[in-house]
Amino acid sequence: MESVAYVFPGQGAQYAGMGKELCEAYPEAKEIFESANKILKFDLAKLCFEGPAEELTNTSNSQVAILVHSIAALRVLESQAPDKFTPKFALGLSLGEYTALIASGCLSFEDGVKLVRKRGQFMQAASQKNPGKMACIIGMDMAELEKLVKGFGCEIANLNCPGQVVISGSSSSVELTASMAKEKGAKRVVMLEVSGAFHSSLMDPAKEKLEKEIGSVTFNAPRYPIISNVTAKPTQDPEEIKESLIKQVNSTTLFADSISYVLSQGIKEYLEIGPGTVLKGLLRRIDKSLIVRNFEKPTDFTLVGEA
User: Which domains does the chain have, with CATH numbers?
Assistant: First the structure.
């Protein structure tokens, strides 16, 4: 068996048509989407398969859609190659941490789906109450960027990989920081198409609501360590995991540091399970020698059991 780390995508990986081919090809995937429809009491599968994209992109929908697609892909992988991979660690980018918890047995699928649906709704509501933006700053000295962030009153939301930092905050603070970053030598600045200032203090109302929900859900000890977004360290302690998920909503996510930790444990192969290839790009920027396999569509699974 190959020792690997499972990595699961976060918000932004959604697209109209996601999961459709997988469900047509594998009954395991179809079963997961049908189960999610029953849990949520609306046709998530139809929204994923057909769109419209605007509705799918809504935070209250996109988060649970990505989670369900990711678990569907995982179940197909488990059925097609049951003895091929041994996950030594699991982690995800923000939302993806919840998927990792379901994969590891820490959360039941039903509880995870319900919790992520509410998380998305809470974050959407916080975005409407405290409007804001996010921007990706690429190729800028970190010390200089930290000065700008502090000076204009926004916050660092994501440390994704070397040279790529996402900032978050009020629209004016992000726009000013982004504009000044260009003048200070940033190679590229990208305003992100998101509905709010995630992973910033503007998400405080969502954190408060989510804390109550998490407190009512049963968390088990995961079968393998989960790397926390907020500490970049492994844990199998349910209470630590709960605390991490609560803090994650309005704290910086440490994806680059999380991968660095897994690397330090000798893991060089990563399975990105779910929609898109965003994490593959980040992983390659962290270390070009990493082996990254994507599992999303039927063609990704065709030879996995034989390879």
Answer: 2-129+200-301 (3.40.366.10), 133-191 (3.30.70.250)
